[in-house]
Design a protein that fits this description.
Elements: E1 18-20, E2 53-57, E3 60-65, E4 74-78, E5 84-86, E6 103-111, E7 114-122, E8 129-136, E9 160-167, E10 173-179, E11 189-195, E12 202-211, E13 221-229, E14 232-239, E15 248-254, E16 262-263, E17 276-286, E18 289-297, E19 310-319, E20 322-325
Antiparallel strand pairs: 1-13, 2-3, 3-4, 4-5, 6-7, 7-8, 9-10, 10-11, 11-12, 13-14, 14-15, 15-16, 17-18, 18-19, 19-20
């Protein structure tokens, strides 16, 4: 659900006032012929690529996503954000404490000269989803989790998923996540806990921030991602059923990374006639503009394995505590 895009992922983008945070479907491996940038349209990747995040990689970009196409952590690479090609598995070997089949919602932040990935996978006993941590020297991987246990695993709350790292302008690091309460019939909460300076350990106590309490949110909130702008902390999150056109992106604000957060009454990104159930977003900086990457279904194939949840881009603008997100549309944000 993080970091700075520039010298450091989701920690600053050349402006001290802005910092970025932060079920699987398998489809056959696919390729996408490059298109001229002027003709590029959403979705920027037309095959299954759920829970995406886009990271800077030298002069180009790498996108990571939930397992699929025979990979534990899918990757795509691009020079221009509009034409993408499939990369290799960013995490070809799993930790000793988990098993293949479910590796969800990876999110990465650069700490010093290492890239740290927080991801969701299955714990051995009980068999619930928990959060692991893996490290690489390159944003494309390979990431390795050498730990013997998960980083976060709320057994009595259904498990823990959708981890999202964030580093504030003052340098303090945090991890946000969701308890998988909808799996066991309890409330879902977005929680936060401080991270060590190297991103490798949790410190202090976890704090619950928001739960599902608005009509549009249905039975869950999930997929947190925090962005700092002019002293305001913007929490983007998803809610409702991911396999439906009711899934959408919500927004809340606070004056501190640990809240309290005040929600907008309505979502800031919803279904359109070309994209159904947009959600699980991440933000990044591109030449001073803030872009949002997220997945969405084709309106005539909601819940279908083909094409699955494809990768989309929108632009985000800020005005104090207010945000505006361009609707999911075929035309890409101007200037990409």
């Amino acid at each position: 659900m993080t970091a700075a895009l520039g010298a450091v992922l989701l920690a600053g983008c050349g402006r001290a006032t802005e910092t970025t945070s932060g079920g699987s479907v398998t489809t056959p491996a696919s390729t996408w012929a490059s298109r001229p940038a002027a003709a590029a349209t959403n979705p920027v990747w037309p095959s299954n690529f759920p829970d995406p995040q886009i990271l800077p990689d030298g002069d180009g970009w790498v996108a990571i996503a939930t397992n699929g196409n025979g990979m534990n952590v899918q990757t795509l690479v691009s020079d221009d954000l509009t034409s993408w090609t499939q990369g290799s598995d960013a995490m070809p070997e799993l930790a000793s404490w988990t098993t293949p089949g479910k590796v969800w919602a990876p999110e990465v932040h650069r700490f010093g000269d290492r890239w740290v990935m927080y991801y969701t996978t299955t714990a051995p006993d009980p068999s619930i989803q928990c959060i692991g941590l893996a490290v690489a020297d390159d944003p494309k991987g390979p990431y390795r989790d050498t730990g013997s246990t998960p980083l976060v695993c709320e057994q009595d709350q259904g498990g823990s998923i959708d981890a999202s790292p964030f580093v504030a302008a003052d340098g303090t690091a945090y991890l946000y996540w969701k308890n998988d309460g909808n799996a066991v019939g309890v409330d879902t909460w977005i929680s936060v806990q401080r991270l060590s300076a190297d991103g490798m350990r949790l410190e202090g106590e976890a704090k619950r921030l928001i739960r599902q309490d608005l009509p549009w949110e249905g039975h869950l909130v999930e997929a947190p991602f925090v962005w700092e702008r002019d002293g305001v902390f913007h929490l983007f999150y998803s809610a409702n059923d991911y396999g439906s056109d009711r899934y959408a992106v919500g927004h809340a604000t606070a004056s501190s990374p640990t809240g309290p957060f005040t929600k907008d009454a309505e979502p800031v990104l919803t279904s359109t006639d070309v994209a159904a159930g947009p959600g699980h977003c991440a933000l990044f900086d591109k030449d001073g503009r803030v872009l949002m990457v997220y997945h969405a279904w084709a309106p005539d194939a909601v819940g279908s394995e083909v094409p699955g949840r494809t990768m989309w881009l929108s632009e985000v603008t800020f005005d104090g505590t207010q945000v505006s997100v361009t609707p999911a549309q075929s035309r890409l944000p101007a200037g990409l």
